[in-house]
Amino acid sequence: MSATTAAPRPLRGAIVGLGMMGRHHARLLQTSGLTTFVGAVDPGGDRHGAVADPALVFPTVRALLDHDPASAPELAVVAVPTEEHVPAVLELVAAGVSVLVEKPLAEDPARARELIAAVRAAGVQGAVGHVERCNPALIELRRRAQAGQLGQVFHVATERIGPFPDRIRDVGVVKDLATHDLDLVGWLGGGPVVTLAAQTQHRMGRRHEDLVNVVGRLAHGTTFTTMVDWLSPTKVRRTRVLGERGMLVADTLTADLTFYANGEVTSEWDAARTLRGVSEGDVTRYALSRREPLLVELKGFCALVRGDEQAAVVSLEEGLAAVELADAVLRSAAEGETVHVAPGGHATGAAR
Ligand SMILES: NC(=O)c1ccc[n+]([C@@H]2O[C@H](COP(=O)([O-])OP(=O)(O)OC[C@H]3O[C@@H](n4cnc5c(N)ncnc54)[C@H](O)[C@@H]3O)[C@@H](O)[C@H]2O)c1
């Protein structure tokens, strides 16, 4: 007779911030079976109708925590505006609640470090919601690149353009969107960013930038480019990894992955072949199982809270590194310099 493993007890989960992102987390916290939903916090109430039981919507974190000690949350997803992350996290972790914090981890590196220190001091678990790492197309792209399908990887290019989501008030496109890309380039390219140079545009009359182009290099020589804006009339989410045998292209809107192989060129004159470069070869589109990235993220976080040290989550330190890279991008754009980035992400000075 085969032994069956009982499903683990659902963890008591809450959502803080019921906006555009929080409503999706709220749905999964109520329906995934991974958690027992114990409440939502939003001073503006449940504007998107995300919570089935209106009695579980609270105006403050304090009200959630004081509601019923028997149903105190074990974990909370923090999906408030970026500048509100630190106060929300401080209050939650002081009450012993583990936190999955939406990206970017905080508005600047100092605040991100403050957040991490509070989580560690409280002895709870924390992770950051860089949900692109849970996208099936990017997971498969990375697996194939690491397995050697591309041979040596030359370049990683990300493109994340589209119209402006009017609700973003507190940060610019670098911190709000490009933190995805600044996290992905090293994760996909297999090494940390060591130098970068950036150019920005301010076209919408807001305090913060609305377009950024970054060019840079990873530790072992792979180059990268990142194009991100809120000015384009169509939404594109595309990541290309180019290597000596071809190119893998992921579309994270549709979770599609395509391989463009280099053509086989037969020539008796090898030198001429080198000079001609590559030619077009076979194109393969892979059939992927399309798991919801946010559900994959929540599953990984629940495993972490249960004590699985190998759980597939993006660590708070990786979240800090993305915030530090965003800082380096803004500094490069402001000063018109190429910036060196020390291990761990922080900028150390202009590269000459
Ligand atoms: N992972 C992703 O792909 C992704 C996508 C979008 C947004 N985000 C991140 O999620 C966070 C929220 O973004 P959004 O687009 O949902 O914003 P939003 O403005 O739509 O929602 C934020 C919500 O938080 C509420 N709020 C404000 N202060 C609060 C507090 N102290 N306590 C509880 N609730 C509070 C607001 O009333 C609002 O309903 C941001 O950090 C953003 O960067 C991540």
UniProtKB/TrEMBL annotation:
Organism: Patulibacter brassicae
Residue ranges of every copy of the GFO/IDH/MocA-like oxidoreductase domain listed in the record: 140-248
Designated name of the protein: Gfo/Idh/MocA family oxidoreductase
InterPro entries, per database record: Gfo/Idh/MocA-like_OxRdtase_N, Gfo/Idh/MocA_Oxidoreductases, GFO_IDH_MocA-like_dom, NAD(P)-bd_dom_sf
Protein origin, superkingdom: Bacteria
Domain Gfo/Idh/MocA-like oxidoreductase N-terminal: 12-130
